[in-house]
Amino acid sequence: MKLSYLAQQAAPYTQSVHGDCEISSLMQDSRIRAENSLFFCISGIRSDAHDFIPQAIQNGATAVVITREISGLSVPYILVDNDRAAMALIAAAFYGHPARSLRMVGITGTKGKTTVSYYVKAILETAGIACGLIGTTGSMIGDKWMKNTLTTPDPIELQQTLRAMVDANVQAVCMEVSAHAIAMHRLEGIVFEASCFTNLSQDHLDFFGTMEAYFAAKCQFFTEEHTHNAAINLDDDRAGTLIEQLNIPYSTFGIWQKSDIFARDIEMNEGGVNFNLVLWNEQVYPVHLRMMGMFSVYNALAAVAIGLIMGVTPPDICRALESVRAVPGRAEVLETNTPFKVVLDYSHTPSALSNILETVRGFVRNRIIVVFGCGGDRDHGKRPMMGEIAGRLADYSVLTSDNPRSEDPMEILSAIEAGIQPTGAAYVKIENRREAIRHALEQAEDGDVVILAGKGHETYQEIRGTKRPFDEKLIVHDLLSAIAEERKNNA
Please, where are the H alpha helices in 176-293? Predict the structure, then answer.
């Protein structure tokens, strides 16, 4: 594919083109060998990729995309005024604009994106529409899973994945859309048939700075440029502001506000949730969810709204909702064969931690023991908030590491401790997460619920810049076996 053609595809951001050549691949990591590649000089917070052009050329780059003139440049180049947006448009063109052959569904919001996407996938497939999945837990093409490095992949990886989906005869794709992806123009050139706003609560303030900026990024997704139809959670405090800005068709869902799609007669227990689904105050359908909590009802309603936009009938939608047994790391009850339950949940924000604790409080027969931490190099403000929530809603808290990244784990724990101490609740600090889980399991008694919060589906722990294997499902199994063996030998 000619460089000149790709430059035309990024026309809104292309300032000039110098030279021409054949392009066989795209790259943004100068360390990777890629013959006849186009190297994107993406400027980041910590480094400027323009400095790595010589390395990229050495590794096969025959052209580059730059945002500032480079003296003595020996290869053809495209000068652009927005590197990330240009990369998205060029990647789409390079892979043949795969999104144009797919029915695209986008889910955005602080919480619920993963579960909603699983529900939507089930709904579309129940209606006979082959559906791919892109999100936090990875990408799914048919029965094949691929790991993602980000909730919404970078443009090259995203377009490559969409191309693979088209080639595999996938008809629709449901993907999680992060605020980072919107702000960084990863979705440039992709138009969604349906999009959903689940909710907004504190997260990612290390990147956005304020809740207003975080919300503004979400709002950018709900424009004619990106989506044709919207589904909005009317119970969220920001819903009214978002709706005022809409210039596209939309429907609403909720529980407390008067919505187009709502749930009533909600009954919750440890086995799931029963409710009546009401559509436009006219149609009523009984639904049984196999997943616990009020947040599961909201997630289901969001998926219903998307399903209706996509033309799926209400009976098919209800059958699909009832078919979903679990979503990896989302209020997932592990099989432990113990007199206490162990729940794995990706709750890494204050509101998410509050949700899972309040949900379990509704059915727990004895105590709630929660194991949690906070990620390093991320929003510091939520650490004492999560400590306060655990102190208030759990009976016993085990403060431990999440993904400390480059930070000192004990400093993170001290910040969480500052929030839990004023509550007077019982807690312990155990920096090693495996030992923290072991302690919680050893303390658990008949009727208790142990919640492992924060990691969810993740199978690694990032410490000092290194990702180390850490699959909590396997760890719980191994620890319970070891504890049982020790107790047997000491009997």
Answer: 179-183, 205-208, 211-221, 239-245
Q: Which single residue is written with the structure tokens 């409080």?
A: 361
Tokens in use for 315? 């009976």
Q: Which of 342, 462, 482 is nearest to 402 (CA)?
A: 462
DSSP labels, 152-198: S--HHHHHHHHHHHHHTT--EEEEE--HHHHHTTTTTT--BSEEEE-
User: Using alpha carbons only, what angle is made at residue 335 by residues 332 and 341, rounded to the nearest 5 degrees?
Assistant: 70
Q: What Cα–Cα distance (Å) separates residue 29 from each residue in 32, 51, 52, 117?
A: 6, 12, 9, 30
Residues of the chain with pLDDT under 70: 45
Q: Contact, 110 vs 199, CB < 8 A?
A: yes
- Tokens for 94, please give them: 């390079």
Query: What are the pLDDT digits (tens) for 29-57?
Result: 999 999 999 999 998 767 889 999 999 99
Write down the number of H helices and E strands in the chain: 16, 24
Q: Report the distance separating Cα 293 and Cα 359, nearest Å.
A: 5
Could you list the beta-strand ranges (E) of 13-155. 14-18, 25-27, 37-40, 61-66, 77-80, 103-108, 131-135, 138-141, 144-146
Longest dimension (CA), the chain: 79
Q: For residue range 308-350, what is the model confidence (pLDDT) as tens digits?
A: 999 999 999 999 999 999 898 898 999 999 999 999 999 999 9
At residue 47, the pLDDT reads 80
pLDDT of residue 43: 80
pTM of the model: 0.89
Burial class, 220, CB count within 10 angstroms (exposed 0-12 / middle 13-18 / buried 19+)? middle
Q: Do the Cβ atoms of 106 and 227 come closer than 8 Å?
A: yes
